[in-house]
Amino acid sequence: MQITVTPETFKLAQAFTISRGSRTEANVLTVRISDGFISGRGECVPYARYGETLESVTAQIEALSGPVTRDALADFLPAGAARNAVDCALWDLEAKKAGKRVWELAGLPTPGPEITAYTLSLDTPDKMREQAEKNAFRPLLKIKLGTPDDMPRLEAVRAGAQKSTIIVDANEGWSAAVYADLAPHLVRLGVALVEQPLPAGEDEALAGMERPVPVCADESAHDRASLPMLEGKYDVVNIKLDKTGGLTEALALKQAALAEGYKVMVGCMVGSSLAMAPATLVAQGAMVTDLDGPLLLAEDRDHALTFDDAGVHPPMAELWG
After folding, report:
1. Where are the alpha helices (DSSP H) in the chain?
2. Of the N and C termini of the chain, which has fewer Cβ atoms inside 10 Å?
3. Dihedral in degrees, nearest 10, Cα atoms 183, 189, 195, 198
4. How much is the pLDDT for 108?
């Protein structure tokens, strides 16, 4: 079995800004696993927030030796981007060899489209209102916040998109006091969800705090091992394949989170349709789907995912799975 890792770059349609900085392109790693006749593909997006770089993740993958199976993968790679790309490539390879779709192999119902959030980049209130007006036809908008000047931005987006459901991602940018102060305004403006308001290492303050708007764990939730630390602090778990280490753990985390009473959000890093494709299976029936990565790109893969009024559709076999 041969594994190759290739860095690839996709230009963004416009600069994408969050509280941690801006970018104009998506830098990803494409993993191909071949048995000599058939190959499978997976994509990951190394994330600096978790100490990952293109080079470090490439080294992790290239250090794999001998036969690699999904069942044994967790023994060789930790949860994260490297394991995600390999795991998804193995699923793709298995499906091609079996002549079936991945959801059949996983024992899942045939997937359908899911309405996805569309993310508005962090900008001035006037610019964010313009973005909101331009995308007011979308049923679900996600706003990147996490600065001292968030209320004018939120007010501007609501004014620009009066009928859209709004969710907010603070990217660990608030304190407990700021969240408590903003919470009534979030309710007033019809915000449906707040993602990671406090830093992951400082989220104990959420325990026992009144949460009039559901609070979602992102940076605080990686895989099933994270669940015990979320109790009493969060209402929703954001499942991202680059955090869980692939589709295998993502499906297991979804099942475990639902069993413990959490609702589920399925999110993504900024990547191509190949990165989103496996996540569309996890997103089935989720409270929130946030798989808009390809919508932020100026260019995408061949056989890209379809986005329409029904949402993001499952992938064609030519793309993945």
Report:
1. 54-62, 70-73, 81-98, 102-105, 125-134, 150-160, 176-188, 241-244, 247-259, 273-282
2. N
3. -30
4. 97
